[in-house]
Design goal:
The chain is an alpha/beta fold and 321 residues long. Helices cover 29% and strands 18% of the residues. It is globular, with a radius of gyration of 19 Å.
C-alpha cells in the first residue's frame, strides 16, 4: 500500500493517531502478541489493539465448553480468564511494541472499587487508553449488570474518570432497553468514546443430553449474525454522540470492507474486528484495501469524511408495521 493510500486510512481517535480505522477487539487477540506469530500478520495493519479483559486479581474463567460455533457466528463464555493486572503490567506490557500500533487496556470488575483500582494501575503504564468493560454477559458479578443500568454505568465511568487522564472508551451492552439513554449518562460522567456493541446473550443446546453446550449455560454471540443489530445500535449512539464530538468504535460482525464502511457511514469513527480473525488472521489487510478502493471511487481523501454520512429514507404513510 502506497504512503498516499495509508494516509487515507489514518484516523484521529480521542487524540490518538490510528494508522487505520481498524481496531482488534478484546478477547480475540489475547494480549496483543499471539497473532504476531502468524506469517504475514502485522499489528501495523490496524489502528489499535484492545488487550484481553483484565481484572484486579487473576481469574480462571468459566468451566468448559467455552466456545461454540453457530450459523454465521460464535458463542463464547470465557469468563474473563486472565492473569490479573499486576502480571499484565509486569510481564506483558514491556513485551509489546508501542511503535507498531496503539494498545488499549480492557478493564473489568465485580465492584466499582475493582474498576477504580485496575484503572489506577493502568494509568501509571504505557497503555494508550482504557476501555471499560461494563457489558460482559459471561460473568455472574458486575459485568452486564453494570452495563444494563444507566446509573450504574455512569457511576463506573465517573469513578474511573477520577483516577486516570487516559482516554476512556466505554463498551456498551446491546442487552438493555435504551442504549442511547445509557450513552447520554456515560457522556455526562466523563467518557471520551464508546465501543458499540458488546456481544448479545445467546445459548446452544445439546439435544441428546438436553443441556446447554456451554458450561456457563449462556454466552456472548458475535459474528455476522449480529451485524444488523450492531449497525442500528451504532447509529442510535451516534445520534447522541455527534453533538458532543464523542467518537465511536462500531463493532459486531465485521468481516469485509463493505461491513466496515457501513459502520462508518452509520456513525463510527473506527471499527472493531473480532470473530473474523478466527478464520482469517489476515482479514484486516483486505479490509484496508477495500476501504481505500471505496474512498477513491467516491472521490474522498480520508476515511473520516464518511463518518455519520448516512441519509435516512423519508418515512411514507402506511409503510410501517
Amino acid at each position: 500500500m502506497s504512503p498516499e493510500d495509508k494516509a487515507m486510512l489514518a484516523v484521529d481517535f480521542c487524540g490518538m493517531d490510528f494508522a487505520t480505522p481498524l481496531v482488534l477487539l478484546s478477547g480475540c487477540v489475547g494480549f496483543g502478541e499471539e497473532y504476531t506469530r502468524v506469517a504475514g500478520y502485522s499489528n501495523r495493519d490496524v489502528g489499535a489493539v484492545c488487550l484481553k479483559g483484565t481484572t484486579l486479581e487473576p481469574r480462571l474463567g468459566n468451566a468448559p465448553h467455552r466456545i461454540y460455533e453457530t450459523p454465521m457466528g460464535m458463542l463464547n463464555a470465557i469468563g474473563l480468564q486472565n492473569p490479573g493486572t499486576a502480571y499484565v503490567l509486569r510481564e506483558i506490557l514491556p513485551k509489546l511494541d508501542f511503535e507498531e500500533t496503539r494498545f488499549i487496556a480492557n478493564i473489568s470488575g465485580s465492584t466499582v472499587e475493582d474498576y477504580i483500582e485496575v484503572a489506577r494501575l493502568f494509568d501509571d503504564s504505557p497503555i494508550d487508553a482504557i476501555e471499560i468493560n461494563i457489558s460482559c454477559p459471561n460473568v455472574k458479578a458486575g459485568g452486564v449488570a453494570f452495563g444494563n443500568d444507566p446509573e450504574m454505568s455512569a457511576r463506573v465511568v465517573e469513578s474511573v474518570r477520577a483516577v486516570t487522564n487516559k482516554p476512556i472508551i466505554t463498551k456498551l451492552s446491546p442487552n438493555q432497553t435504551d442504549i442511547a439513554a445509557n450513552a447520554r449518562r456515560c457522556i455526562e460522567a466523563g467518557t471520551d468514546a464508546f465501543a458499540v456493541i458488546n456481544t448479545l446473550m445467546g445459548m446452544a443446546i445439546d439435544i441428546e443430553s438436553r443441556s446447554p453446550i456451554l458450561g456457563n449455560n449462556q454466552g456472548g454471540l458475535s459474528g455476522p449474525a449480529i451485524k444488523p443489530i450492531a449497525l442500528l445500535k451504532t447509529h442510535q449512539v451516534y445520534q447522541v454522540c455527534r453533538a458532543h464530538s464523542i467518537p465511536i468504535i462500531g463493532q459486531g460482525g465485521i468481516s469485509t470492507a463493505e461491513d466496515a464502511i457501513e459502520f462508518i457511514i452509520a456513525g463510527a469513527s473506527a471499527v472493531g474486528v473480532g470473530t473474523a480473525l478466527f478464520y482469517d488472521p489476515l482479514v484486516c489487510q483486505s479490509i484496508n484495501r477495500g476501504i481505500v478502493d471505496y474512498l477513491k471511487r467516491h472521490g474522498l481523501s480520508e476515511v473520516s469524511q464518511l463518518t455519520g454520512s448516512l441519509t435516512l429514507n423519508t418515512a411514507k404513510p402506511g409503510c410501517g408495521c
